[in-house]
Design goal:
By secondary structure, the protein is an alpha+beta fold. Helices cover 33% and strands 25% of the residues. Strands 3, 4, 5, 6, 7, 8 and 9 form a seven-stranded antiparallel sheet that branches. α3 runs antiparallel to α4, α3 packs parallel to α5 and α4 runs antiparallel to α5. It is elongated, with a radius of gyration of 25 Å. The protein starts with a strand and ends with a helix.
Length: 177
C-alpha cells in the first residue's frame, strides 16, 4: 500500500485514521502569451540597429481558489530578430505599435545572463592581480555588453582597478631600483 502522498507541504498518510490536510488553493492562473506585430528595436544584447523584432505579452491573474481576484501581472518581452534574445520591456504591447527604435530604447531592460554576472564578480575579485585581472575584467565586459544594472557598474569598476594595478605593476618592474 502507498505509505504516503505529498501534497504541497503536508504529508497525507492513508494509514492514519484521520486525514489532516488543507484544501488545495490556487494562487495563480496564467494565460497564453499574445504575440504582436513586429517592431523595430536597437537590440541591447547583440548591438544590432533597427532590427524587426516580435513583441509578446503574457497576463497573469492572481486569484484565490480561481474565484477571488487579487491582482493582474503583465510581462512584455521582445524577441530580437537577429540574436533571438528575450528582452524585457516595461511598456504594454499596445503602446509599442506606434514607436520607432529610438522611442523603444528607454523601455527595454536587458538582464545579464548568470555567466555574465559570474564573470563580473570574478573580474572584480581578480582585478587586483596584474595582467590576469585585466584579462578577466575584459572578458567580463565582453560577456555583459548591452546590459544594465549592477554587472555593468561592477565591470566598469573592475576594469578601472585592473588597468590601474597593471600599469602600476609594469611601472614598478620597469623602473630601476
Amino acid at each position: 500500500m502507498l505509505a504516503g502522498y505529498r501534497l504541497g507541504s503536508r504529508r497525507l498518510d492513508y494509514d492514519a485514521p484521520f486525514l489532516w490536510s488543507s484544501p488545495m488553493i490556487t494562487f495563480h492562473q496564467q494565460n497564453e502569451p499574445d504575440v504582436g506585430e513586429p517592431v523595430l528595436i536597437n537590440c541591447p544584447a547583440c548591438g544590432a540597429k533597427d532590427i524587426a523584432s516580435v513583441p509578446s505579452e503574457s497576463v497573469d491573474y492572481v486569484k484565490i481558489a480561481y474565484l477571488i481576484p487579487i491582482t493582474k501581472l503583465r510581462a512584455t518581452t521582445i524577441r530580437c530578430g537577429q540574436c533571438n534574445a528575450d528582452i524585457a520591456c516595461i511598456a504594454p504591447m499596445a503602446e509599442l505599435a506606434g514607436l520607432d527604435a529610438a522611442g523603444i530604447d528607454p523601455l527595454l531592460r536587458f538582464h545579464p545572463t548568470p555567466a555574465a554576472r559570474n564573470w563580473s564578480l570574478l573580474g572584480l575579485v581578480t582585478s587586483v592581480i596584474p595582467i590576469l585581472g585585466l584579462i578577466i575584467a575584459s572578458i567580463a565586459i565582453y560577456h555583459s555588453r548591452g546590459t544594465r544594472g549592477w554587472p555593468a557598474s561592477v565591470n566598469m569598476l573592475s576594469i578601472i582597478l585592473a588597468v590601474t594595478v597593471t600599469v602600476c605593476g609594469v611601472l614598478l618592474m620597469v623602473m630601476p631600483g
